[in-house]
Amino acid sequence: MERLQKVIANAGVTSRRKAETLIQEGKVKVNGKVVRELGVKVAQTDRIEVEGIEITKEIHRYFLFYKPRAVVSAVTDDKGRKVVSDYFTDIEERLYPVGRLDYETSGLLLMTNDGEFANLLMHPKFKVEKRYIARLKGIPEKVRLRQLERGVVIDGKKTAPAKVKMRSFDKGKNKAIVEVIIHEGRNRQVRKMFEAIGYPVQKLSREGYAFLDLRGMNAGERRELSHHEVKQLKALAKFGQ
Ligand code: URA
């Protein structure tokens, strides 16, 4: 059961504030009867009319998407590049990404049409862990990685503590693979963190988001989240992990 004004707003008819006004003006009917009080709760099965027109309730969808590199985390792109929405053209609901991965970065991206859910997860106080795998040019010493763990200054502000682990390195090729876990979501954060210690990222992938990962998936594939996974994410956002 949800509040009437919220259901009207979620259906895309108008804002929640305007919906409240419409209710108070007697322009909203539930199952054929005018409802003027705010806060009345309605069920999925209730028939709601706004100014004589029945609203169609938006069904919320939640997807885990494995974004390939060279795809923009947006619904459209003015430069005509491929966008994440191109992978969801068969889905009727208008989905948008929860946060962003930069153009060259591949990996786990959530897609939804639930604005409240997206806002909740993107709120800075929500400390969901995001796990990245970076391929670096050069092999950073332990002391450099510790520096990243403690925080480095990017764009004039120190990053929050991170977890950083050397996964492997190749002295012959002068390359290293490093895992980084952060809970902030600043613009190009991981790339900038490595730049700050002098080791540019050559390839970056987000492999984990909270308890979700990309196991069994290939770039460009998606799967719908289960009801339970959505509930868990909402709970994490509210109560922390
Ligand atoms: N850090 C980056 O550098 N890029 C991303 O897309 C995400 C985190």
UniProtKB/TrEMBL annotation:
GO MF term list: RNA binding; rRNA pseudouridine synthase activity
Record-stated family: Belongs to the pseudouridine synthase RsuA family.
Name of this protein: Pseudouridine synthase
Biological-process GO terms, alphabetical: enzyme-directed rRNA pseudouridine synthesis
Residues annotated as domain RNA-binding S4: 2-59
Record's GO cellular component terms: cytosol
Naturally occurring in which organism (per UniProt): Listeria fleischmannii 1991
Top-rank EC class of the record's enzyme: isomerase
